[in-house]
Design brief:
Length: 193
């Protein structure tokens, strides 16, 4: 099985390493042709505006939307979640609009406010160690989006892991902890497709 990692900007190498560690061929994707060669796609963390601009520059926006519409499983982490979403609270930016959610960028604060937490994830027997770096949260979800994990702070309860059909999105960076369960979940979506 070949799983692509959008390799325009951000921590794509870490995702490729995780995929390789679970016996899946991780492929860096930078062109529409490379996107056609994979069965699923990870959109990594980084800077969401930059990822969107580079995806536009490289002619990837429409092919990515078409791949999602055709049922390609996708996992977006941190900035990848923002890029998948239908909108942001703050301002408009290039987004795919394939995840029925509105995201608040840098919702937990600046770089110095980064933190780690143990999350109870629906469907997982054990909590998941999550690393939040200038992390977004989901401000609003559509009817077809399932919230799989949330974080609570002084301002309320905030979804940080969601699933809509074959799209998974996280506010945090699973590739930084060595926990392979979300990548395995992505692979499972391919196998069930």
């Amino acid at each position: 099985m070949r799983v692509g990692v959008l390799a325009l900007q951000g921590d794509f190498r870490e995702h490729v390493a995780i995929l390789d560690s679970i016996g899946v061929e991780g492929i860096e994707v930078r062109t529409p042709e490379e996107l056609q060669s994979v069965e699923a796609l990870v959109i990594p963390g980084g800077e969401s505006t930059t990822i969107g601009r580079l995806a536009s520059l490289y002619g990837l926006i429409d092919p990515l939307r078409e791949a999602a519409a055709d049922g390609m499983p996708m996992l977006g982490t941190c900035a990848g979640m923002i890029f998948l979403a239908s909108g942001t609270v703050e301002h408009e930016q290039p987004q795919l609009g394939v995840l029925d959610a509105v995201v608040r960028r840098n919702a937990f604060g600046r770089q110095v406010d980064s933190f780690e937490a143990m999350l109870d994830v629906e469907g997982f027997d054990e909590p998941m160690h999550a690393v939040f770096i200038r992390a977004p949260w989901i401000a609003k979800v559509g009817g077809g989006v399932d919230v799989l994990a949330s974080v609570e702070d002084d301002s309320g309860v905030h979804p940080v892991l969601v699933r809509q059909d074959r799209i998974l999105a996280t506010s945090f960076h699973p590739e930084l902890t060595g926990d392979t369960r979300l990548h395995r979940m992505l692979v499972g979506l391919v196998e069930s497709h």
